Structure formats: C-alpha cells, structure tokens
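Practice problem: predict the structure.
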Amino acid sequence: MNIRFQYLDTLKGFAIFLVVMGHVISWFFDSYQNTIETIPQAMTIWRIIYSFHMPLLIFISGFLYSSQNTETRISISYWWHKVSGLLFPFIVMGLLFYIIKGRTDSYWFLRTLFFYISFQMIYDFVRMKLTSKKIVDIVWILLSILCFKLSYKCVDFYYFDLIFDFDHLSMYWIYFVLAVFCRRYNLFDKYLIPIIANVCALISIVYFICIYKMVVIPSYINYICVFSTIVALFYLFKNKLFFKSVTDCLEYLGKHSMEIYILHFYFLVQMTCIGDVILYYIDKGSLFSFLNSQTLELFISIVVAIVNVFMCIVVFEPLKVFKKVYYIMFGRKI
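Answer:
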C-alpha cells in the first residue's frame, strides 16, 4: 500500500478511537449534557475530544475521496459503491439499533458523509467542463459553506430536515470541502513543512488550554484552531512520530473504522460509578499530587475504550466468514 494511505489509515484509526473514547466518557454520567452545563470540569477530556475528532474524521474522508481520479469520482459505479457502503449500513444497522436500544441518531455520520460525497460528485462533474478551475474551486468552497449555513438557519420543515439532517451537514461541510481542496492541489505535500506544523501544533495547544479554562471562543477562531489541529496531526502521522507498535495498532483500527464505528455503540455501558468518583474528586481536590479528576477520567476512558474496541474486533473478525452478512452490516466486501 502507498505510504500516503498507510498514514491515513493510522490517522483514521486514531480518530475512530477518539470517537469511542468520547462516547465512553458520555456514559460515565446519568446525563452528560446536564453535566456539561452544571459541572463542565467533569467533561474536560470530553470537550477536548469533541472539539476536533469529528472534523478530523470528516477531513480524512474528504481527503480520501479526492485521492480517487476524477473519472472514478464522478462515475455511477462509485456513487453506488457509496450507497451500499454508507446508506445501507445507516439504514440496516440504524434500524437494528433502534429496535435494540430505542435510539435513532447514532449513525448520523454515515448519512452525512454520503450527502457530502454526493454533493461533491455533482460539483466535480460540472467542474470538468469549466476553465479557471482553481478560482471556481474557491468560489465553490465559499458558496457551498454559505448555502449549508443558510440551510440550517432557514429550512424549518421537519421531514426535510429529518432526511438531510442540516445540523450536521452545516456543521462539518467546511472540513470536507477543504480536505478535497488540499488534496486536489497537494497543499500538504508542497507546504506542510516543520515550521508550519509547529505553529499549528502551538495553536492547538493554546486552543486546548482555552477549552480547559472554559474560555469562550468565537466560531471563526474555533474553525481556525480545529483546522490547525488537523494540520498538525497530519504532519505528525505522516512522519510516523510514534512507536511502530502504536502505529500498527492504529492502522488496523483505521482499516476497520467502519466496523468499529457501527459496533461500538452496542458495547457502551452506563458506568455512573466512575462519573461519581470523578465528581467527588472535583469537589474534594486531587486524588494524589499527580492525579486530578481529569487525569483519572483520561486514564479510565482510554482503558474502557480499548475494551470496547476489543469487543468490536471479537465480533467483526469472525463475521468475515459470512461475506453477505458482513456486506449488509458494514457495507464492505471481503
């Protein structure tokens, strides 16, 4: 496999592990939303993870989409591949999850990504017939972001929103379309030098400190900070600045990110006892001089997330024998 795709698999594995971690932390409390509002310190790790993990996953998806050649991207067969790979699992596994757990909003990412790819395919088809493509691309980015933002604010038809989910569509489109632009013009290969990566990493650190200190950040600054975090992570993973054993594990997770994303919801267990301990030490102070509530939350959430991912692997690896079932569940051919 090409080195580029190896590091993208590793980065995608990191992103999907953060998704699991974020959901694990949510289940430490009876109502994580009330906890965010009343005791935000208890959700510090969660707030940091949620500040960039889905933008990162969306960005990787846009980057991978743009890595296909244009003829492939605009073909009906490619679109149908995305229907079977994204919409089928969204419908089938979403229905199953609703029957078992009674929830309908868990697999929004699959539907949102499908619409992103569909919209971008239409643009790419039109783009082939245009000149001054770079200018047109920039105009497309600005206009499409504006349209998605306006659609979220202006569309007030329940069933229309139920189909398209304008909340998520408007929230993450900027990262998908920027990823396509960066990959199309090889911006990371040309300009992602160490000094730029270091500046982006510094911005990310300041950003996370602001989240920790609960500083209110304007939305446009937030977008810049999140994009800087993504750029820093791309540089970090592209240059393999980790132990090989870690990158190998993350690469495996990245190659099976769809399976883990779909299955991990089934293994989330309410563990309010952990949340109670975290809240207790927020009230009483540090457990030891080196262990505060956030450190405790980080350590436990990593351990529980590893167990959750392991359970996913235990389920999907044997299912590979049943190719049709595997295809229906995860939209992937073995």
